[in-house]
Amino acid sequence: MLEFIIGILGTSLVFYVIFAGADFGAGIYEFLSDVTKNKSRKKLVERAIGPIWEANHMWLILAIVIFFMGFPEAFAQFSTIFHIPIVMILVGISLRGTAFAFRHYDSIQDEWQKRYTWLFGVSSVWTAFWQGVVVGALFGDLPSKQTDFYSTYVHPWFTPFSFCTGLFVIAVYLYLAQTFFLSETDEYPEMAESIEKDVWKSLLFVFITGGLVFIAAWLTQPKFFSAFFGHPVSVTLLIITTLLLVPLIKSYRSKRFHWARFLVAVQVAFIFLAVFIKRFPVLLSFNDGSNLSYSIAAAPEATLRQLTYALAVGVTVVLPFLIYLLKVFKSSTSKKKRAT
Predict the structure, then answer these.
(1) Which run of H or E residues covers position 292?
(2) Are 150 and 234 in contact (CB under 8 A)?
(3) Residue 257 and residue 248: Cα distance in Å, rounded?
(4) How many CA atoms lie within 13 A of 201 on its CB side?
(5) Rounded Cα gap, residues 75 and 71, in angstroms
(6) Angle, CA of 135, 142 and 18, to the nearest 5°
(7) What is the DSSP letter of 187?
């Protein structure tokens, strides 16, 4: 039961990073287009994520429910220590969803549309950054005891490494969105060329921010290197991820954008899996040398059993309908566009 629950937890997080990451990246891309005064991406963004943007956070909700029910002790520690960045993430998600809903469904087109668009873009950047901050902080040692406010609730995440990780997440989300957009430009050929140019810039941005992460890790966070290079399977996955750049670049040049989207998703999944394998079975590490593992933090067997049943039903019933939802809305949106 425990292995099944952990597997679904990891899968939901991977899907969230890929699909919701591309969703956030769409807002980041639109925001950067407005800042640089490039051609507006509003129509493309709304076509790409409009029909299914509500479904993307299902993966995050699923992960939180599994975390809360399956590993309550770890969830309590995590939500307490990181309550400040978690609140920042929730504020960003709420503002972003509100702005997109008003912009997408408001029947009155006036000056408020510009304000909604601005809020949508800013909150996308904001949320992606704080998600990266939390991820970066998890590589450090968390306080084992509550002392003063700063040491307990600020110091674990207020580090150069966490901030660099936040910038890296922004870059990855932007790159994901642009790659996904390229497969949506069949009906917007005038945008395809400019997006292709932007993809190369974003890829460079990913390498630069990734380099900053490694520099910050070398200076302040040595555990990060052990998390990436301390396990043969993790190293193998990272090598494969790097080698996938060759077919990925070829797919861009040959304009096989659906293939490029698949390769980018695989790269993100492999990076996540590489870190997970190295850290397993540790959930949280503390500054007194102790660790909180999945087995120690696991809920009672009766709770795990009920959670397993619920997840089994969800995988069997909900996932196929979600796939059907994406297919129906995407095809209907495409037909509607061709009809107009």
Answers:
(1) strand 291-293
(2) no
(3) 9
(4) 9
(5) 6
(6) 15
(7) G
> Are residues 69 and 301 in contact, defined by beta-carbon separation less than 8 angstroms?
no
Residues in the chain, overall count: 340
For residues 49 and 311, the answer to whether their CB atoms sit within 8 Å is: no
Q: How far is residue 198's CA from residue 192's CA, in Å, rounded to a whole number?
A: 10
* Distance separating alpha carbons of residues 23 and 109, to the nearest angstrom: 23
Rg of the chain, C-alpha, whole Å: 20
Task: List, in sequence order, the alpha helices (H) in the chain.
Answer: 2-15, 21-35, 42-49, 58-70, 72-81, 83-105, 112-137, 149, 160-182, 189-220, 222-229, 232-243, 245-253, 257-279, 294-297, 301-339
Summarize pLDDT for 84-134 with one digit per residue, the tens. 999 999 999 999 888 877 876 766 666 777 788 889 889 999 999 999 999
CB atoms within 10 A of CB 177: 29
Separation of alpha carbons 55 and 51, rounded Å:
9
- The residue to which tokens 């993966």 are assigned: 59
Distance CA 274, CA 290 (A): 22
Dig out the tokens for 53 from the structure: 């943007």
d(CA 82, CA 74): 12
Q: Full-prediction pTM beyond 0.90?
A: no
Whose tokens are 């200076």? That residue is 219
299 alpha carbon, distance to own chain's centre: 27
Mean of pLDDT over the chain: 83
Q: Which amino acid is at 86?
A: I
Cα separation, 52 vs 159, whole angstroms: 35
**Tens digits of residue pLDDT in 141-175:** 889 888 889 989 999 999 999 999 999 999 999 99
Classify each residue of 305-321 as buried b or exposed e, where b means 16 or more C-beta atoms within 10 Å of its C-beta: eebbeebeeeeeeeeee
